[in-house]
Amino acid sequence: MSGQQRIQAILFDWAGTTVDFGSRAPAQVFVEIFRQRGVAITVAEAREPMGRAKRDHIAAVVAMPRVAREWQRVHGQPAAESDVTAMYEDFLPLQKSVLAEGSDVIAGIPATIAWLRQRGIRIGSTTGYTRELMSVVAPLAAAQGYAPDVIVCSDEVSAGRPAPWLNLRAAAELRTDMAANVMVVDDTIVGIQAGQAAGMTTVAVSLTGNAMGLSLAEVCALPANELSERLLAIEQEFLQAGADYVITSVAELPELLRGNPFGLT
């Protein structure tokens, strides 16, 4: 990028980016709905499609070769669309029941949002959660000081991430001039891909989200050299996926925006 870029709006993901350090609430529910059908999946498998609309996420896990083989072994036949639908229907109430524990706002978010708003930057958000699920998360986050101007949910667009529609709808609702003036901040590869597909600047979050997948306490317990190695590996993965920038948490966003090509003060 050359010259100074004008940023009108920033679109933040939710779990792992602004709330739920480690993006732990959805991961545990995906593991549970497969367990209920006699199929054990690992947390890593549950996390791999993270960021997608939740039904798409379940379908992606079912299609993983190891999981598909295990499903065939347990059920005697491949998983059908009806199985994916049934798991999705079970997922929604189970996810809703654990969201109260997964809606803690990540440290530094309210201060960062206040800093952005003081500079005239509009605050939007997109999520793989449905509107029903966000009816739990959004009020809890607001009570902790985080309330974006716009929330667009996965069941309100024709296709979720990595398609661009969540971002484009949020940008339109925020009345931005053009996609190039919008920044997307996300903790998943598909979130970065969705930002790219929309023609927006992308910023990946490496520490607080799905890529690291640890609670704050677990992060603090890691030896410093191991934490550094993990962060470097995550950063490289995001950059290889096309992220424009990588930060450890949203709290670092003001520092990024003070530099070129943004030049905010």
Would you give an account of this structure?
The chain has 265 residues and is of the alpha/beta class. The protein contains 12 helices and 6 strands. It is 47% helix and 9% strand.
How would you briefly describe this protein structure?
The protein has 265 residues and is an alpha/beta fold. The chain has helices at 24-35, 43-47, 54-62, 65-75, 81-98, 109-118, 131-143, 165-173, 189-197, 216-221, 224-240, 253-258; strands at residues 9-12, 122-126, 150-152, 182-186, 201-205, 245-247.
CATH class division of the largest domain: Alpha Beta
Count of separate structural domains = 2
CATH architecture of the largest domain: 3-Layer(aba) Sandwich
Principal-axes geometry comes out as globular
State the helical fraction. 40-55%
Could you give the order of strands across the largest sheet?
Answer: 3-2-1-4-5-6
The Cα radius of gyration reads 18 Å
Percentage of residues in strands: 5-15%
**Total DSSP E strands:** 6
Average pLDDT across residues?
95
CATH fold annotation of the largest domain: Rossmann fold
Low-confidence stretches: none
CATH superfamily heading of the largest domain: HAD superfamily/HAD-like
As an assembly, this protein is single chain
Q: In sequence order, what are the helices and strands, one letter per element?
A: EHHHHHHEHEHEHEHHEH
Q: In whole angstroms, how far apart are the ends?
A: 19 Å
How large is the count of helical segments? 12
Sheet of most strands: 6 strands, parallel
Structural class: alpha/beta
